[in-house]
Fold:
Amino acid sequence: MKVFWNMTKDIHLKFCLLAILVFVQNSLFSQNLEETIYSKTETFIANKNPKSYDVLIKQESAFKDDISSKDEQLAYVFLLCNKAYYLMENNQLPEAISNYENAQKRYNAHKLSNMSDFDITEYCLKPLGNLYTKTNNYTNAENTIKYYINLADKSNNTSHYISGIINLAVLYQTRGMHESVLDLIKQTEKISSIPKRQKEKLHTLKTSSLIALNRSNSTNSNVDYSKSGTTYNEHQLQYELALNQGDYEAALKYHNLAISFQKKDSFTAREIAKTHLEKAQLHYLLTDYKKANQNLEISLQTLLPNLEPYAIPERTSLYAENTFIDIFDLLARLQSNPEKALQYYSLSFYVSNLLTISVTSQESKIANQSANRKRSEYCLDLLFEMYQKTGGLDIFERALNYSENQKASVLKAVFEKKTLLDQHPKDSFLIKEQQLLMQQERLTDVLIKTQLGYEISKNDSLNKQLLDISIQLKTLQNKIALKYPQAETHISISKIRSQLLTDQAEMVVYYYGQRSLYQFIISQENTIFNKIAINEKFKNSVTDFIHLFDNPAAINNNIKAFTSQAFSLYQQLHVGEISSAKNVLIIPDGLLNFLPFEALLTKATESNNFSNMPFVVIQQAVVYNSNIELYLDPQKTSKTKKLLGIFPVFESSNQPLTYSIKEAESIKSATGGTILMHNSATKQSFIETASNYTILHLSTHATGGDFTNPASLAFSDEPMMLNELYSMSINPDLVVLSACETGIGKLQKGEGALSIARGFQYAGAKNVLYSLWQINDASTAQLMTLFYKSFQKTESAFTANRQSKLNYLQDPEISAVKKSPYYWSAFVYYGKLDAPKDTNLTLYYVLGFLTLIFIVFLILRKRIINERKSS
Structure:
């Protein structure tokens, strides 16, 4: 027994010694790894160049999988930040962003702030926010800057707080949000002990925004522009003021003086390129095109040192840098050959795509899309001139693609993601992407409500959460792109015509630019390319006609003015050049999104009787869509028709919808659908049940919002804001929005109105019937009753929408006053041209069979008579 105990004790002792040895070795390894990371990083910092960077990358790949302890994580964060800084200095911005993102992710995930005084704001978050600004990722930039402003506020770090205000102001200036800049800087006025350099920067930003707002002579500006400046900032402000006032000679002088104050060796390649670009822009404005071209060449050579002089760069040599966009745009303007100009514009679009490929929020995507619109219009100008000279379907098709590439592209991308998920419903990447996108919109909704004071956030890190989701989405979307590569889309006239033939339709596409409205008409026999000048007269024609629908009296009190304007606009928009096709598909743009085309008049009339007026709706069936590709995209229709109706009624409010009760009863009778009324029509009940139905009908109040407040939809308990609707995932065959202003919202260039209707489209509805103005409760109930009667017979929302309006106009029980287009033309249908179901098909078969028997009988009878006569 004693021997056994001794043996056991020896084994136990040996085991303990071994464990201690392993622990010591691991500790030494851990310590050595931490020191190794710092050592390798410091070696690289001492001699930064491409060769030493490559060495660091190889060393990093050898040890990064072994990193485990917090000390090692901190060392690696230090390495990542220095890598990112080097990449940023060398214009490798996407790679720099990825390294900074990795650094901040590790720093937060391992809670390194609890064990170290490493300044994550200074060495990671500040440059990351600035990089997001430089690469047009505006949402991430704002979330990053606001995140470290919040950190600085909590830790009473005035320097970081003011830096955040400065960087946020720079971001807002980049986006032209100058009032927001002034509001931000006003917040700093009560802060004492701001360092002199930061004070000067705040003053410069403030003055710069005042200049942009044409308020530079305000008492808020302390710069005396009559005297020669003595600092870089003063010369820069004088340059901006002169440029804003159109004094380009003075602007060039002050620009050169500002540059002279800068130390040449402190300029990065990007800053040098920017400087020469600004000079080129000034020379262009001074019509000195030779010097403009020379400065653009210097700017381009600075960013691409290996480029041959005056050569057009290959796409493969370009990278995500927004300076390229301005260079190529101006080079395009300088070309006398339109094809060469289009080559440069094509490079601008390519770089723009490089910049936005990792953008995940729809807000940033829309902002970038808006910036591309101006370039699209220049391309259309060139192609229209070429078309006028030579004609040709190829030029028409190219122009059409420029028109559509920057139109509703965010909405189109959402549909593409949903389609891909439908095709691969079990793919974990696609499922996770959908979840993150919905979470992103939910958080954005909370953030907006918090900023507007609608609710108090229980979480002070919304910006951080949104940033984290964006980083996750970017990583995920890179994997999805590799797994499911998407080919570059091109819209062909032959494909359009094929679908139009099926739909017995013609297509009219509009592009609403800054200077011109372009129109494309496509039929089986012909294509028409029109250019309409957007001058004050034209804009007034459109806006005046739209304002006729602000209230019912505007039309009824002056019917003659209405008929005159309705026919005049019909002519100005060349709607008469559409042939007498049975159906017309209209893809509007800009202000035309708010125009009821069906209420235009096809010819002049002296009639005061609305029933007898030649409205477009009487001549043709009109359907709308946001983009040609959305029209061409095939849709799956559910076999069953299950309707969910939402009717809050609001009986106890000052805006009751009394007639919606009758509307609900008629819809229930016609469809047998599920109707949620009064207090049952809550937001939560809608969210929980909407995805179970193929038809959604909402009879309620809605608002189009304004520049501050987003569009919203009312339920019996609380409203649903637009971003909350974005966060839903539904797939109904049809959404009917029997509510005011559901098609109205903040108008975004290219994307259209950010309305409740678009919210439903974003959530997954491809067919939507919605209103363009504040509709009348009683007439809406009548129209909806007529709509569902027709829909039950035809199973075609497209057909039922038109038929309900025709029936409304011809109903003898409706007064003449109520037949004004104010009452019936508010509803527009966006979606597919679904052919009506022939409910009398069996009867036709029977009649056809009886007719055939009768014909045979007549033939036989005649033969018998002839035989009798011959015998």
